[in-house]
Design goal:
This protein is mainly alpha-helical. It has one domain (about 5-395). It contains 16 helices and no strands. The chain starts with 5 loop residues before the first helix and ends with a helix. The mean pLDDT is about 85. It holds the Pfam family Chromate_transp. Keywords: Cell membrane, Membrane, Transmembrane, Transmembrane helix.
Length: about 400
Amino acid sequence: MNQTNPRRKITSLLEIFLVSLRLGFTSFGGPIAHLGYFHEEYVRRRKWMDEKSYADLVALAQFLPGPASSQVGIGIGVMRAGVLGGIISFLGFTLPSVVALILFALLLKEFDIGTAGWIHGLKIVAVAVVAHAIMGMSKNLTPDIKRKAIALFALVGTLVWQTAFTQIGVILLAALLGFLLYKQPEESEETSSPFPIAKRISVIFLALFFSLLFLLPILREITGSYWVAMFDSFYRAGSLVFGGGHVVLPLLEQEFVPTGWLSEASFLAGYGATQAVPGPLFTFAAYLGTVMNGWLGGLVATGAIFLPAFLLILGALPFWDSLRNNPKIKGAILGVNAAVVGILISAFYFPIWTSSILAPVDFALASILFSMLAYWKLPPWIIVVSGAVGGSLLAMFQ
């Protein structure tokens, strides 16, 4: 499409925004479901890209840290209307859940409802949701004994050493183990596809990503600024999460709960509420930022946690072919993905289980919610509503 005509470009950007906004209002079910919605809308219905290009883009998003579905949406916008198209696509898809979670956080603060029974129900929802995520991810990411061992190493490491840097070290060691153990992974056909970004521009995006990752902690120490510290914590979480939105939970918990920036009860209540809204799970950051520092904090947190996704997808697009066809890189990613399972199991025990399952009836409710999600295949919003109602009923009879 020729984008030299300003009116045509504005029309194209408006179309991208409206389509992605509708997806943002209707895309429930997590990143895998989002990719299905994207395929139906962008590939089958609108034919903005072909099957191969879409598959290539999904593969790149799965390879990179960060929110996979959001990165695919950004990439589609870039291919349609350049970098500005990627930004517009992201805004449309993310806006509905960000607004909903900021409003929920403001309600939580204004009316002091942190001890309400339905809030405890939302914490139990988090138990069911993460247990379901573990079940699916472990089947796909730890199919052999070597990857199961890496997952166990990650589980033990993150439980025994509870620091903000443990998970980073575990991920790096898992990458090294995968590199050593899977030097010759299964042979696959080499593929290639063109992406509409010059390599010199992509290098700038990658340099900015790594510069912020290393300079923000230094700036945080030098300035002592609350806002710099907050931006650094969310940016680092968005930079180091492999495996999707659920895995951001332990990183954010380690950043904010031990430091006293917010309570475990508020943290888990927001995580449960995040399951009820459409769009990416990373918008959990909007809730956390709002609880800590009002609606402006919510916007800053959202921008910080999604910024790495932008920089990485725009920086990696032209280099994707050489990366994915490198067997050593493939092995390292296998190790990282296995470690993700162990990290998530660790977070499932602490803080999710230890602060949510306080009595046998709590476990009973969690079992019901898990069965509704995993076996009856009910939509996530029904699980959330059921958890809130169940928590209120438990509070009435205790």
